[in-house]
Amino acid sequence: MSQNSLMEQNLSNLDVTLLHPLSPEVISRQATINIGTIGHVAHGKSTVVKALSGVQTVRFKNELERNITIKLGYANAKIYTCEDERCPRPMCYKAYGSEKEDRPLCDVPGFENVRMKLLRHVSFVDCPGHDILMATMLNGAAIMDGALLLIAANESCPQPQTSEHLAALEMMRNIIILQNKVDLVQENAAFNQHEAIQKFIQGTVAEGAPIVPISAQLKYNIDAVCEYIVKKIPVPKRNFTSPPIMTVIRSFDVNKSGFEVDEMKGGVAGGSILRGVLKVNQNIEVRPGIVGKDQNGNIKCTPIHSRIVSLYAEQNELQFAVPGGLIGVGTTMDPTLTRADRLVGQVLGEVGSLPEVFVELEVSFFLLRRLLGVRTKGSEQQGKVSKLAKGEILMINIGSMSTGARVVAVKKESHLAKLQLVSPVCTSEGENIVLSRRVDKHWRLVGWGTIQAGTTVECHPATFVL
After folding, report:
1. pLDDT in tens, 269-314
2. Is 232 helix (H, G, I), strand (E, B) or coil?
3. DSSP output for 241-252
4. Which among 319, 312, 308, 311 is positioned nearest to 350, based on CA atoms?
């Protein structure tokens, strides 16, 4: 399985106990660290990803027409450094696309004959900055190991979604701030905004984070961003030995209209593996699977069983896939089940090892003091977040699943709530969830919580889709 000078993978001698996020046979083909790009609309998130990886993440027709990101965009990049220590930094750091060979030549003048070594293989999760698309951003936040927070130098700081995105990352510690578009402002304006950024991040999860001035459009200082990614975002600890489990972030049907029956391919699920190793030809299960109602109106779930026929990380074919990065899993499933993101929010893994499916959750929650991301006039205070009320409807994000939930009961003094879910969710106790509430026709982040217990639904015998 040799593909343009990338390291070979061999299932016959694979020992998962020896794997590591920086194992050469892994990072040659697959990203093992997920980094999100977050920030206000039009601050340059997609442009930074393109400058680092060479991949245009804004792909869909309506996104290109409106010049905004609507769906989560993904792109992988390999980060290298020159093997000669005399090569000046940060120029010795370089980012290329995922298909680049493992030891390219350095392009710094005077070091053209020196090889570079591969340090990291990063998957960038490009989140929408538009306020209406906050739920999409929260789905991306579920898989991030670190984040690049973009702040445009030619606008005041903070903009509404800058603060809202930062609050959504409250559970994360590895943030690098990029002061983008410095080519559009004078030097003193950039210095003044640098001070405004430092003031804004005081007391937040981003306090003490490095602030790097860049121009993503001109690729100015991108090598410094590469150095910070290597030095400031630690390699996450991964579990390779447990049964594999993957959250599905998108799913699609790759068959074109007019295909003959014998040309048809099974459905494809894309997502990030949370733990374990998926292998080609492995039998898998998807939960909750096909959701419906029985004769009495109760929810019933039928898991889908299938088999992995191919694994891909962008254009790189894999024999096995590890946690980190976005993986495309080609299956034997009926493609109508995966068409148009129908599997998003479901969980894929080894048969018999997936968590329970819940229809009701008991959560311990924390609410923000004030609403974030809402424009206020002049010195007007941002609206306070009112307490949870019995009977109100919330939107909750669990992993990559967004679903509605009705508050059935609240214990305000102990910060506990019982939530009845609109659609069943495959999750487990101890998982984090994000709470959003409808404010002025938009869903707004109001808090987060942890699952303590819940009511499960019995899964019916699995549907074999082979």
Report:
1. 888 888 888 888 888 888 887 777 777 777 787 888 888 888 887 7
2. helix
3. SSPPEEEEEEEE
4. 308
